[in-house]
Design goal:
This protein is α/β, with parallel strands linked by helices. It is built from 9 helices and 12 strands. The chain has an 8-stranded parallel β-sheet. A 4-stranded antiparallel β-sheet has the order 1-2-3-4. The protein is globular and about 55 Å long. The protein starts with a strand and ends with a helix.
Length: 255
């Protein structure tokens, strides 16, 4: 797939487009997702910068998950579970352990060697689990960042009141979460329009969307951290725009 994600932010005075390629391949030396962000001058359309979109995507996606988690996770959350061990697993681990205080972090990946590599490369203690169910059972916050096309997280495993950030399965026919979890949780999304056209977890389960994350941030919808919650993240082009402008401004100030 080749995705094109243009956006303009008047507030940030920024115009960008992200080009992202997505390949399902066995070559582990090349990431499945590769991206480039082009930053333009909104006044005349001239190209100001070419940025590493893969780094921006990894960090902005994890940052949005962290915002959702701050709003939706249960009080006194102690156990973090990450399903997956790719680029997004690393970025989510970094920001979640920086912003929150978890007593335990568990990792599961289909290929155990990749999970062990992640655990050995980060600063804090990480438990590598032999099954997804083992990793999920009793977890307060769960992050799914996998290449799964059929559910790998099941509602009867999930602790009542837990919060799930569902980041993978970005196609209308792909799933990470089963129907039970989708229908028995309060569902938050980054974009209703995107979720109803791109997310197999939402489309195929028929789950009702309670709110966009922006509505919670603005205070027009409640967060409901006492409930079992799911945040379905698909990513929005404006997130890349804001992040790219932030990087460019810092670089410009240093030069």
């Amino acid at each position: 797939f080749l995705g094109v994600m243009p956006a303009y932010s008047a507030a940030d005075d920024a115009l960008t487009t992200k080009l992202v390629t997505f390949y399902e391949h066995e070559d582990s030396s090349v990431p499945s997702h590769q991206a480039t962000v082009l930053l333009f001058d909104p006044r005349n359309g001239s190209l100001k910068a070419v940025l590493d979109g893969s780094v921006i995507t990894a960090k902005r996606t994890a940052a949005v998950s962290a915002i959702a988690t701050k709003l939706l996770m249960p009080p006194f959350a102690e156990v973090l579970c990450i399903l997956g061990a790719g680029v997004q697993a690393y970025s989510h681990y970094d920001i979640f352990t920086e912003l929150f205080t978890f007593k335990e972090v568990r990792i599961w990946n289909r290929t155990k060697e990749k999970a062990e590599k992640l655990a050995n490369s980060v600063n804090g203690p990480v438990q590598v689990c032999s099954s997804a169910q083992e990793a999920v059972t009793g977890a307060d916050v769960i992050v799914t960042v996998t290449m799964a096309t059929i559910p790998i997280l099941f509602g009867d495993w999930v602790k009542p009141g837990a919060h799930v950030n569902a980041v993978g399965a970005s196609r209308p026919d792909w799933r990470e979460l089963d129907d039970e979890l989708m229908k028995n949780s309060v569902l938050f999304v980054d974009s209703r329009e995107a979720a109803l056209t791109e997310s197999g977890d939402v489309i195929l389960s028929g789950a009702d969307i309670f709110a966009e994350l922006g509505e919670v941030l603005k205070g027009t919808k409640p967060a409901l951290p006492e409930k079992t919650t799911v945040f379905k993240s698909l990513g929005m082009a404006v997130e890349d725009t804001v992040a790219a402008k932030f990087v460019y401004d810092l670089w410009s100030a240093g030069n």
